[in-house]
Amino acid sequence: MGWNGTCGISQLPITSGTRVKTILMLQSEFAKGIGGAGTCYCSAYFRPWFFAVTAEYNDYGSIENIQEDWNTKYMLETFQKWLAEGEVKILDNDECEINSPNIKTFKKLDDVFDCVERGSLVVKNPGDSFNSKEQKWEPTGGYLKIGMFMVLETVFDDMVKATNRFLNLKENAYYKKYDDEPRREAIIAINKARAHKNDDNIKDEELRGMLRDLHVDRLLGDLIEEHAAFKHYKDLLYNPDIITVDEFFAKLDEVSALSSAMCYLRKLWFPQTGQGSQNEELLFNKALIEAMSEHIGHRDAEFHRQAIESAKWEKEYKAEAAKKKAAKKKKVTA
């Protein structure tokens, strides 16, 4: 018998060979501890840090047979670069949370995920803290934990579809407009920067400035409520030789849609309990689904009843207003 994983949204067991979408998460540098009040955002403790990869569960807590694309290539090259520069650190057996996978370098992306699963990979804290004595901002220092968030591929796809259906509802036009405006501005910025990519008179810093000034940061950071989650992807954005704008936004839209679903489901981005468990008693999952279905049916009935009452009230209100208007007009013409 193998070691099951756990779906971060459905909490269903993930068994060997099952197709999953997996997202690397970064610990929030602003999380001081578990909030007892419960008034936290989905990303209060961990947040998505890289776009999702498609793979199969490897029967032992991590993934294998990763579907390669521009994003997986970028991820591997980025972690190789960060390891060489000391931005990330592979912990030894005495330091890591579980035990060392005996990986010293990242030859393939599987190595990164295996280190994360063992709790042996950390990243330098990119944040700053305010030194009140010196009255200045200083690097916070220390390292942040990296987590792994696996979702059953079918669940992931359905959550993305649900978000798209939600945004296309007439009553949610505001949300769609709120997302579409910065997106249009970002695409203008990206294309502007790419047009100057091979201009010898413009430096890379200026290209980054073009993106920053035209609100690309909002899409890559504030999109999921806090911090600069995806801003390390910027180097790809202004380089037309690496990725098309459409391909980039397809990945960004995917994780944005999932983040919206997480918000409405009140789910935390957090490493899942039960990872490595051999237990797969679906009786409890069935009982939970039945209870949820019953509650949803009850709430749907209430929404329907409220809609009927609201329509009735609006009809009566309009009829009364028309009656008053007619009476006023009659009085004037009398």
* DSSP summary: helix tally: 9
Low-confidence stretches: 223-227
Radius of gyration: 25 Å
Mean pLDDT: 84
Total individual domains = 1
Structural class: alpha+beta
Number of strands: 11
What does this structure look like?
The protein is an alpha+beta fold. Helices cover 46% and strands 14% of the residues. The protein has one domain (5-265). The protein has helices spanning 70-85, 109-118, 153-167, 173-195, 204-213, 216-220, 234-237, 245-265, 283-333; strands spanning 5-6, 13-14, 19-27, 46-48, 53-57, 63-64, 88-90, 121-124, 128-131, 136-139, 143-152. The strands form three sheets. Strands 3, 4, 5, 6, 7, 8 and 11 form a seven-stranded antiparallel β-sheet that branches. A hairpin with a 4-residue loop joins strand 9 and strand 10. Helix 3 crosses helix 8 and helix 4 (173-195) packs antiparallel against helix 5. The longest helix is centred in the last third of the chain and has 51 residues, at 283-333.
Write the layout of secondary structure elements.
Blueprint: E1 5-6, E2 13-14, E3 19-27, E4 46-48, E5 53-57, E6 63-64, H1 70-85, E7 88-90, H2 109-118, E8 121-124, E9 128-131, E10 136-139, E11 143-152, H3 153-167, H4 173-195, H5 204-213, H6 216-220, H7 234-237, H8 245-265, H9 283-333
Antiparallel strand pairs: 1-2, 3-4, 3-5, 3-11, 5-6, 7-8, 8-11, 9-10
Helix pairs in contact: 3-8, 4-5
